[in-house]
Amino acid sequence: MSEVTIRQISQDDIESLHSCLDSVARERKYLGFTEVAPIEETRKSLVEDMERGVIRLIALNESKVVG
Fold it and tell me: pTM to 2 decimals?
C-alpha cells in the first residue's frame, strides 16, 4: 500500500490539485459545484493565498494530489 503524505501546498502542486478537485466535482456527490474554475484562476487564487500565509494542506500519494 502506498503512503499518503499530508503537507502544505506549494506552487508545484497546483495543477495536480486542480485535476483532483475537478475529478471529485464531476462526480456530483461530494462538492457543491460540478466543475472547478479554470487552472489560471485557480493558480492565481492559490498563489495569492500562499503569499498571504494562508495554510492549505494537501494529501499526496507519491507526487499526485489525492485530497
Answer: 0.85
